[in-house]
Design a protein that fits this description.
Blueprint lengths: L8 E4 L7 H7 L6 E3 L2 H5 L2 H8 L4 E3 L8 H13 L5 E5 L1 H13 L26 E5 L11 E5 L5 E5 L7 E4 L9 H20 L5 H23 L4 H17 L6 H10 L8 H16 L6 H8 L8 H11 L16 H10 L12 H10 L11
Parallel strand pairs: 1-8, 2-3, 2-4, 4-5, 5-8
Antiparallel strand pairs: 6-7
Bound molecules: zinc ion (ZN).
Length: 382
């Protein structure tokens, strides 16, 4: 049996941000909390949103990897202003933070008890406060995803998963991504591509998600280099935003070893690493590791992405990384080999580990980390 859940109302397209006031009204929010970050304050976008919502309060100190303490700080603002819903504006971090606030606004602390690996899925009820998510990157798919990744006080980065954490409404306006710098366009786009590829290869039964993921992989593959080269290309930005949304709609089927490792690496206190960059780096190695375990799916992926049957997907992913300037290995990003044991232990415990199509052992994870330690592996084909 499979539980297949699609819940979010999605307003998609250029100019759809104009729907926000009516979205707030239809979700019965009177005093929403806007959750965002200082980067989006600097772009003027927070003011543009706040000007439409005179009763809104703001929490703008979302860290790049959202933490339990940031959730509690935003929760204090939410409660002090008697808020009744959240507008999450940004990339994955403000949206994940908003999910943590929406959860604790209606559920008793501590946060840890709701982590998926501690049986939290059963403890999260439909009482979760409503969220309207407005993504400003084409990447995480958090606007329609049921998971939030939050780092607890002791440094563990854990997944909080529930259909009740899915935002009630998403406003996906590709205009908001037009100013995204090339490096961020590449890293977030490759995160989205990794969602589509990992979800598609996950062994769980969900053919609906597979069809969405295949379509999303093709859209991202065809448009990422264009949007990287010309950030103002609205058709390419629109396709990327749709591909990221499709990744988010489908990853309820489960991710895999790319995300098990990137969640672990993203939980390091130092260095602070970007989720999308990590996934970009790890994807060729994991695709190579999984290639004999996914049967015809490799052919289907290549067909959906417009690759020749004879091409090697891991090699093609590596070549795309090079074109997008993603060339640094883990060492150059600040990771030390002495951190590998900690990373591997957390990857084995991560919720994405179980849905990799080929069971990965601690030694397999060490081999993957070694393969991307010094630099991008120079693939020579298979
Ligand atoms: Zn991701």
């Amino acid at each position: 049996m499979a539980r297949i859940t699609y819940l979010t109302a999605i307003d998609f397209g250029s100019g759809s941000i104009a729907e926000l006031p009516s979205a707030v009204a239809s979700n019965k929010m009177v005093r929403p909390l806007i959750v965002s970050d200082q980067g989006l304050v600097a772009t003027g976008l927070v003011k543009r949103i706040a000007d439409q919502l005179p009763n809104a309060t703001q929490f703008l100190d979302t860290p790049s990897n959202p933490t339990e303490s940031a959730v509690l700080a935003a929760l204090a603002t939410y409660k002090a202003n008697d808020c009744d819903g959240i507008i999450a504006l940004g990339g994955g971090s403000p949206i994940d933070l908003a999910k943590g606030v929406a959860l604790l606004a209606t559920h008793p602390e501590p946060l840890e008890q709701y982590a998926a690996i501690y049986g939290g899925i059963e403890r999260i009820t439909a009482d979760v406060a409503p969220i309207i998510a407005i993504p400003t990157t084409a990447g995480t798919g958090a606007e329609v995803g049921r998971a939030a990744l939050l780092t607890l006080h002791d440094g563990r980065k854990l997944g909080f998963i529930s259909p009740h954490l899915i935002p009630r409404q998403a406003i996906c306006d590709p205009d908001l991504t037009l100013g995204l710098p090339p490096g961020l366009t590449a890293a977030t786009g490759l995160d989205a591509l990794s969602h589509c590829i990992e979800t598609y290869c996950s062994p769980r039964f969900n053919p609906v998600a597979e069809a969405i993921a295949l379509d999303g992989a093709g859209r991202i593959w065809r448009n990422l280099l264009t949007a990287f080269t010309d950030g103002g290309d609205l058709p390419a930005r629109t396709e990327l935003m749709l591909g990221a949304l499709q990744g988010g709609l489908s990853f309820q089927k489960g991710l895999g070893a790319v995300h098990a490792l990137s969640h672990a690496l993203g939980g390091l206190a130092e260095p602070k690493l970007h989720h999308g960059t990590l996934n970009a780096l790890l994807m060729p190695v994991v695709v190579r590791f999984n290639s004999d375990a996914v049967g015809e799916k490799m052919h289907n992926l290549k067909r959906a992405m417009g690759l020749d049957e004879k091409e090697d997907l891991a090699q093609a992913l590596n070549n795309l990384n090079m074109k997008l300037g993603i060339t640094k290995g883990l060492h150059a990003l600040g990771v030390q080999r002495s951190q590998f044991d900690w990373i591997i232990e957390r990857a084995m415990a991560d919720h994405s580990h179980a849905t990799n199509p080929r069971a990965a052992t601690p030694d397999d994870y060490r081999t993957m980390l070694e393969a991307v330690f010094e630099s991008q592996p120079q693939e020579t084909g298979k």
